[in-house]
Amino acid sequence: MGVAKVFRCTLNQQIACSYGFSEKRYGDIRSMSRDLKKKLESLLGNDARLLDGAFEREVYSMDIGAIPFTGLLFDNIPEMIIQPKKIEALKTIIRVANEERVAIFPRGSGSSGLGGVVPTVGGMVIDFSSLNEIDELDQEKMTIIVQAGVRWSEIENFLKSKELTMRTYPSSFFSTIGGWIATGGYGIGSFKFGNIQSQIESIEVLFPSGEIKSINQDDEEFSLFFGTEGQFGIVLTATLKLRNKPRKALPHMIYFDSAEAAVNFIKDMIKENIVPYNIKYMDAAHIGETNKILGERSFREKDSVLVTFEDELEDRKFLSFASNRGIHAEEYLAHYIWHERLFSMKRKGSKPTPLACELTIPLENFSPYLKKIIRMSKRFKVKINVESYIIGKDEALVLIHYDSDVRNFRTYLAHLALIPVLTKIGIAFRGVPYGLGIWNAPFINEKIDHQTLRRYKAYKHEVDPRNILNPGKFFTARTKWANIPGILLKPVVFRTITKIAPMFSPILLSPILEEKSTKDETELEKTVYSCVKCGSCASVCPAYLITRDELLNPKNKMHLAKKLLLGETITKSDAEKAFLCLHCGMCREVCQNDLDLLTAWLELEEGLEHIFDKPEDAIQNFVSSIEASEEYWRFVYAQKV
Ligand SMILES: Cc1cc2nc3c(=O)[nH]c(=O)nc-3n(C[C@H](O)[C@H](O)[C@H](O)COP(=O)(O)OP(=O)(O)OC[C@H]3O[C@@H](n4cnc5c(N)ncnc54)[C@H](O)[C@@H]3O)c2cc1C
Ligand code: SF4
Ligand code: SF4
Questions:
Q1: pLDDT on residue 348
Q2: 438 Cβ below 6 A of ligand 1
């Protein structure tokens, strides 16, 4: 046996061990040959859109947490992106991928920031954006059947005239149903209605074998598809439970002198059996950010609780409970914060590279945890701000944000290291990391108990023996270079790194690196480095929604702009796409980071015009085709209404 072969065997065994599979069963993921791409093209015809341009592959190599060194660790550039338009097409793709042992990375709107959609070994990204049909509404049973690529905002629009609404939804209203099932999330309304799993009646799942199975909430297998990030099968459709649309929302905002006082208020309210639709905590720093957005000190910069009712009786009960507690904000301010619930990452423009850490924590440990992380974040020289949804009688989902700047690389690395440090402190307070993806995979034992993990591994082995679904993450992050860098992501090693990271932070941060001067930045530069890549703009951009061309997606145009600013190669055909914009300003209206996108687009076009001529014909054709599209006029009409 040659050295190479011995090495490969050991490597395969190592992979196999990390999953608990035998070497033979793990199988080896292969690259896509040109012939295979051709074969798929001819099998799928018009039922799917196949993309393999260099720029397209680049934009699909990341999610919102675009970590600059990802490419050093993983083969994160997919070999191909497929947007199936029909379930039949998706079945063909999965069958071929399984036969040919090509890895598949399912992708909704790519808004979960832990690398869940990031390719690790090339392969195919399956983009669900064209599987977005609303199949059936049953008004009597109050259920709706939707395809996995449908966005929450699309369901809400559809239900507008039907006097029905959803029970709970993520604040990323632009994300997909399939994505939230796969991440098993909590969101707005979770205090009353629980997580996504509790509002789903059944799902249809496509397995690597090609089998499609309808799985009901009472089936034993049902829970396996929530929070397992596309490891076992592809969610095709879901039947969602709806409810009658409430007549109004009754939000109340109350200020407190400390996080502890705010949390005690929440605990007492719950003890009194008062059941709001939603409870949200915001720390003083978070409220300070809101004042900055408004440009005035409308809110008191104090720890605050927003409690929202839909039931007047329950609301009255609350008012008598809360009358002597805290300081009640004016009604219009409470309404403003409630209205802003879909813009959780909103910040005053021009702040580069947001970073965040998310975990669930028992309510009783919430304020001691906050005290501890405030001290820790000072060591890392960052100012955190915290918001939290209360998701049950004794549990909170905590989201900690802070700003960094990827252009000051050493400082950025230290700030990045703070994320697992905050997670680890949370674990000491009986917290649980919110998702796994790539970057939280070292915390798998803290998220999933031993018995459940064994069950997951056995099921993975049964339904995806070749490990083609989202490999190299979740169970264990598997890097390239014979997985040598991957050793750093092994739970034991990672735990040690997070332990010593606070000791090294002063070295990385000191002498505090000169902050990059931003005073001469153009609007385009500010915009590119401040975009949080949330994708909120994509859900309203007519150019993107009508063409479904990812290069017209504002978030991806931002990536093209970055290449332009860095002087990287841009092809003429990719550049042309940047001009296919209606300059309607819809993206500006919903931008989570308050960015002046219209000025940025003009600057981008101007910059590209210096290199390539303005593509007058392409622009003309684009405008004509948009104006000829029924969808566009429906869109215009909907905006007017
Ligand atoms: C501004 C903002 C606000 C957010 N608010 C919330 C919140 O309130 N609550 C919350 O839980 N999260 C929140 N998130 C995180 C994220 O938006 C959610 O996890 C969201 O549900 C992900 O949906 P997506 O369509 O973007 O999925 P993606 O990020 O595209 O995918 C997520 C995971 O699901 C897998 N997947 C996607 N589609 C399928 C499918 N059809 N079948 C099988 N696997 C699939 C992917 O491979 C990946 O592992 C927020 C993010 C942002 C940027
Ligand atoms: S201005 Fe351009 S990028 Fe923005 S929403 Fe309109 S068409 Fe889309
Ligand atoms: S431009 Fe604004 S809305 Fe769009 S992805 Fe960036 S931050 Fe989000």
A1: 65
A2: no
DSSP state of 415: H
Pick out the chain residues at pLDDT < 50: 1-27, 512-513, 641
pLDDT score at 474: 95
Return the number of other C-beta atoms located less than 10 Å from residue 508's C-beta: 20
The letter for the amino acid at 51 is: L
With beta carbons less than 8 A apart as the criterion, state whether 464 and 102 touch.
Answer: no
Residue 561 corresponds to which tokens in the numbers above?
A: 């702009």
- CA 325 from chain centre, in angstroms, equals 36
Please tell us whether the domain made up of 3-129+459-463 is placed in CATH 3.30.43.10.
Answer: yes
- H helix or E strand, kind and range, residue 305: strand 303-309
pLDDT given at position 496 = 86
pLDDT given at position 27: 47
Ligand 2 atom with the shortest distance to the CA of 554: 3
Q: Which residue puts its alpha carbon closest to atom 1 of ligand 2?
A: 583
The DSSP output letter for 196 is G
Q: What is the 3-state secondary structure (H, E, C) of 58-113?
A: HHCCCCCCCCCCHHHHCECCCCEEEEECCHHHHHHHHHHHHHHCCCEEEECCCCCC
- What local confidence, expressed as pLDDT, does residue 509 receive? 67
Opening angle at CA 93, ends 236 and 631, nearest 5: 60
Q: Is 600 in the pocket of ligand 3 (CB under 6 A)?
A: no
User: Atom of ligand 2 at shortest distance to CA of 585?
Assistant: 1
310 C-alpha to center of ligand 2: Å?
35
Cα maximum dimension of the chain: 80
pLDDT, position 378: 92
**Residue 194 C-alpha to ligand 1 middle, in angstroms?**
17
Query: Selecting from 3.60.40.10, 3.40.50.1000, 3.30.2010.10, 3.40.462.40, what CATH number does the domain 250-433 have?
Result: 3.40.462.40
Whole-structure pTM value: 0.91
The ligand whose atoms approach the alpha carbon of 114 most closely is 1
What are the structural domain ranges in the chain?
3-129+459-463, 132-244, 250-433, 523-640
* Distance from the first to the final alpha carbon of the chain: 72
Q: Which of 552, 584, 588, 622 to mutate to test the pocket of ligand 2 (most atoms within 8 A of CB)?
A: 584
Question: What fold characterizes domain 523-640?
Answer: Fumarate Reductase Iron-sulfur Protein; Chain B, domain 2 (1.10.1060)
Our answer on whether the CB atom of 602 is closer than 6 Å to any ligand 2 atom is: no
- 8 A C-beta contact, residue 483 and residue 386: no
- The HSE-up count of residue 62 (CA atoms within 13 Å, CB side) is 18
| CATH classification number, 132-244, choose in 3.30.310.50, 3.40.50.1820, 3.30.470.20, 3.30.465.10 | 3.30.465.10
Q: How far is the CA of 588 from the centre of ligand 3 (A)?
A: 8
Distance 181 CA to ligand 1 centre (A): 8
Gap from CA of 20 to ligand 3 centroid (Å)? 41
The ligand placed nearest to the CA atom of residue 173 is 1
Ligand 1 atom at shortest distance from the alpha carbon of 151: 25
| Residue with CA at minimum distance from ligand 3 atom 3 | 591
